[in-house]
């Protein structure tokens, strides 16, 4: 039994159309195998795969001017952030990173994008989740806040104190 394949080409983005693998690489600056993986495994539309590739380029609108990106462990994208941003959003920094000679540090791009969009750092026990499961898709609309903190033990006074803390932090229903 032959499996049906999802048609990847042609794809149009910003008025340009790619009909071949070479067109994808030339027009959009992303390897065809990366594009194909994002679409087939990541569940992205071809247009989103190209848009995500653009967001990983240094100097793109979704990253700091002149920033650099790389892939870190577990498939997450790391972005070099300024000393000021590292101090403003320490929860976004990659573990065990030290600033380079210019004072820039590596940070998880999905955390930085979320922090920039909401204007605050992450609290202890907060994580940023990729809605579509693709760790390279760091568009703000694909990121959501998850809270994984929980109190130790099951004593009623501990649970009540924890409930008050959650209501104080998120009482208005807004994550920001």
Characterization of this structure:
It contains six helices and seven strands. It has 176 residues and is of the alpha+beta class. It has two domains: 1-49, no CATH class; 56-149, Alpha-Beta Complex (Homing Intron 3 (I-Ppo) Encoded Endonuclease, Chain A). The protein has a three-stranded antiparallel β-sheet. Helix 2 packs across helix 3. Residues 1-5 and 56-67 have low confidence and may be disordered.
Brief characterization of the structure:
The protein is of the alpha+beta class.
| Helix and strand element order | EEHHHEEHEHEEH
Number of strands: 7
The percent of residues in helical segments reads 25-40%
Which residues sit in consecutive blocks of at least 5 with pLDDT less than 50? Answer: 1-5, 56-67
By helix and strand content, what is the structural category?
Answer: alpha+beta
Order of strands, widest sheet: 3-4-5
How far apart lie the N and C ends? 51 Å
Please give the radius of gyration in angstroms. Answer: 20 Å
Kindly estimate the percentage of residues that lie in beta strands according to DSSP: 15-25%
Shape: elongated
Q: Tell me, what is the CATH class of the largest domain? A: Alpha Beta
Overall pLDDT confidence: 75
* The number of domains: 2
In CATH, the architecture of the largest domain is Alpha-Beta Complex
Biggest sheet, in brief? 3 strands, antiparallel
Note the total helix count.
6
User: Looking at CATH, which topology of the largest domain would you report?
Assistant: Homing Intron 3 (I-Ppo) Encoded Endonuclease, Chain A
């Amino acid at each position: 039994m032959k499996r049906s394949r999802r048609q990847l080409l042609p794809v149009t983005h910003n008025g340009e159309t790619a009909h071949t693998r070479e067109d994808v690489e030339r027009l959009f600056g992303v390897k065809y195998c990366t594009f194909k993986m994002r679409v087939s495994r990541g569940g992205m539309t071809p247009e989103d795969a190209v848009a995500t590739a653009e967001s990983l380029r240094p100097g793109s609108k979704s990253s700091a001017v002149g920033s650099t990106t790389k892939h870190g462990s577990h498939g997450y994208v790391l972005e070099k952030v300024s000393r000021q941003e590292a101090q403003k959003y320490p929860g976004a920094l990659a573990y065990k990173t030290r600033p380079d000679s210019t004072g820039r540090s590596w940070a998880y791009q999905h955390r930085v994008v979320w922090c920039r969009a909401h204007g605050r750092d992450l609290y202890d026990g907060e994580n940023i989740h990729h809605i579509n499961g693709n760790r390279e898709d760091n568009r703000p609309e694909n990121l959501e806040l998850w809270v994984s903190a929980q109190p130790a033990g099951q004593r009623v006074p501990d649970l009540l104190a924890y409930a008050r803390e959650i209501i104080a932090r998120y009482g208005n229903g807004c994550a920001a």
